[in-house]
Design a protein that fits this description.
It is a single chain. This protein is an alpha/beta fold. The protein has one domain: TIM Barrel (Alpha-Beta Barrel).
Length: about 240
């Protein structure tokens, strides 16, 4: 389709990514089961209790020593329903760079680093630039940025990324947080400066905010509460996809 950026935004369909914040393996497995066959990709939030106060699987159940985590690392089993749905890992952890190779063994389609958790940004840029080309062929790399972080901090990294995730909430690591309007400006600026950049929004995605996010150029919306608290998950996702 040809046209202005505004016209393309107006007629595009938003990709909805269910966001899973699971306290243990069984909850994660259950939530993945609810969306497999409906969407191609779900987001798994990994929270270590250090970068963010909350903890999710596997950190809430033993970290790397968690029984199921160990089985996956040892290739005795895969992530739940790995043949039916892809996962992106939202790394709300302090060791995402250090243990990148370990997290890759979970078989994600995408890995999302958080800008505020990666340490020195120049060193991080070199790290991203140096990721093996074979890894980049199978895993998309994105970086999330909080609303309270100056947006220009991410500009030197954009050319090395497959996408950017703008957080739509001020307090990350929790579902059901209030929407931060600043994310709308962040999306606008990113889309004006980098028209081809894929922008995901995570946090406070709802029927009240999805339309606003789509109008300013968001390509993907990661939604948790609005999906998993709904009585009809398939219809909710379809309705969110058609927010424009």
């Amino acid at each position: 389709m040809k046209g202005t950026l505004e016209e393309l935004i107006k007629y595009k369909m938003i990709e909805i990514i269910p966001a899973i914040l699971a306290k243990d393996y069984e909850e994660m497995k259950n939530q993945i089961s609810l969306v497999k066959g409906i969407v191609p990709v779900a987001q798994l939030d990994l929270c270590d209790g250090i970068f963010v106060p909350s903890q999710t699987w596997p950190f809430s159940t033993g970290g790397f020593e968690d029984y199921n985590f160990q089985k996956i690392l040892n290739e005795e089993e895969g992530m739940p329903f790995w043949e039916e749905i892809d996962l992106e890992l939202d790394m709300m952890v302090v060791d995402a760079v250090k243990n990148f190779d370990i997290y890759c063994k979970l078989g994600p389609k995408r890995i999302i680093f958080h800008l505020e958790a990666v340490g020195d940004l120049e060193e991080f840029r070199h790290f991203i630039e140096g990721i093996d080309v074979y890894v980049r062929d199978v895993i998309e790399i994105g970086v999330a940025i909080n609303t309270g972080t100056p947006l220009e901090s991410i500009f030197p990294l954009v050319n090395y990324l497959d996408f950017v995730q703008c957080m739509g909430i001020a307090k990350i690591g929790y579902q059901g947080q209030p929407f931060d309007e600043k994310v709308l400006d962040n999306i606008k600026i990113l889309k004006e400066k980098y028209p081809d950049l894929i922008v995901t929004v995570d946090g406070a995605v709802s029927f009240e905010t999805a339309g606003k996010l789509a109008e300013v150029g968001a390509d993907r919306l990661a939604a948790g509460s609005v999906i998993f608290k709904s009585e009809d998950i398939r219809s909710t996702i379809n309705d969110l996809e058609n927010t424009i």
